[in-house]
Design goal:
The chain is of the alpha/beta class. The chain has helices spanning about 5-20, 60-70, 95-100, 120-125, 140-145, 150-155, 185-200, 205-215, 260-265, 285-295, 305-315; strands spanning about 35-40, 45-50, 75-80, 105-110, 130-135, 160-170, 175, 200-205, 230-235, 250-255, 270-275, 300, 320-325, 335, 350-360, 360-369. Helix 1 packs parallel to helix 5 (about 140-145) and helix 3 runs parallel beside helix 4 (about 120-125).
Length: about 375
């Protein structure tokens, strides 16, 4: 059993690896963000984090860093925030790279949920005579998971992590009866909303929002290496080919085919898929599975009350990103259009994950039970 001093050392370097993982950019998706530190005799020999998709993973980056500094990593310990991969994907297996480099020990924060890995990377290392420790620190394992919450959601359920952003007054109003909504929340809250857009792989809205506001649904006001993919739920393909949201490409999801309109949209470079349910609306759970198949880890929703309510009631939402302004607006558009309940016990249960003040407003992250 590891002694207490050894555990403290392991915790210290795993925390360092987690900090490195946090430096990985959104361009790593659909791969997870991972950090790696290689240490011998309390000296850091090399460190690295996941590079944009198709390039080196954290372990290979750390090995290259050590080599560039003239360090021999034989006999060293590698601290990595996720089990080294064991399969050939866009890059060779990291477990093989560590084995061939001659490290003596590997400490992983947690196992990889990818069915192609799921313990196989650790098994490769053990079979090579490398000492392996995994999951020693539940709190750090949780941190590693939170950093890659969309990746784990997709690996475990086949769906992306769906975060629904809503903003309104304390009495739950998103717009006045005349449609005016700019601006209920503060500049700080709006800028924060763009940061959440930027981290997502895709942003989803509905045709009601498109027809009412003609939004662009892009990240603005901050540097980003890429814009999230745009997805529009439009059951009857009412969208205009001139809609701003279609600029740069988008995925349209309908329920009622319209061959003429679909041809027109496809000629404009817009992908259209048809996913109807029995009510003639878009099958939202099927859409989530389709987005998972397309390797979307995090889906950001900014829609109206009707689509918001449908997504919640069809169990397609994992988390609410709720901005509340200290205002009372009275009548107007609400946050969610949900079915009427007959008993309070039927209410959808959530738990507060995080509450933060931004300017005059409050940001609440609440996760659905």
């Amino acid at each position: 059993m590891d002694s207490q001093p050894e555990l403290q050392v392991d915790r210290q370097y795993m925390q360092m690896a987690l900090a490195l993982a946090g430096r990985a950019t959104i361009e790593t998706s659909p791969n997870p963000k991972v950090g790696c530190v290689i240490v011998r005799d309390d000296q850091v020999l090399g460190q690295g984090w996941t590079q944009p998709v198709g390039r080196a993973h954290a372990e290979v980056q750390a090995l290259r860093d050590a080599a560039a500094k003239g360090h021999d990593v034989r006999g060293a310990t590698a601290y990595v925030t996720l089990e080294p991969c064991s399969h050939y994907g866009r890059t060779p297996p990291c477990a093989n790279a560590l084995r061939e480099a001659g490290v003596a020990r590997v400490v992983a924060a947690m196992e990889d949920a990818n069915p192609q890995v799921a313990g196989r990377g650790l098994a490769i290392l053990r079979e090579a005579g490398i000492a392996v420790a995994c999951g020693q620190f539940p709190d750090l394992a949780l941190s590693a998971r939170e950093l890659n919450i969309g990746f784990f959601q997709r690996m475990e359920s086949g769906r992306p992590w769906v975060r629904m952003k809503v903003a309104g007054s304390l009495d739950g109003i998103t717009a006045l009866p005349n449609g005016q909504s700019q601006w209920i929340t503060s500049p700080e809250a709006r800028q924060d909303g763009h940061r959440w857009r930027a981290r997502a792989d895709a942003i989803l809205t509905g045709i009601g929002t498109v027809l009412a506001d003609d939004p662009m649904m892009t990240v603005r006001g901050l540097d980003t290496p890429r814009q999230p993919q745009k997805i529009i739920v439009d059951s009857r393909l009412r969208i205009s080919p001139e809609a701003k949201i279609l600029q740069g490409g988008a995925l349209l999801v309908c329920a009622v085919p319209d061959e003429k309109k679909q041809v027109e949209l496809r000629l404009a470079g817009i992908e259209v898929i048809c996913l109807p349910n029995q009510e003639g609306q878009v099958d939202l759970p099927a859409l989530m599975q389709e987005l998972g198949r397309r390797q979307i880890n995090e889906l950001h929703v900014e829609a109206g009350a009707a689509l918001n309510g449908a997504l919640i009631e069809q169990q397609c939402v994992n988390e609410l990103l709720l901005y509340m302004a200290p205002k009372l607006l009275g009548r107007g558009a609400g946050l969610f259009d949900l079915n009427e309940l007959t008993h309070v016990d039927q209410a959808q249960t959530l738990r507060f994950h995080e509450v933060t003040q931004l300017g005059a407003d409050i940001r609440i992250l609440a996760r659905l039970a």
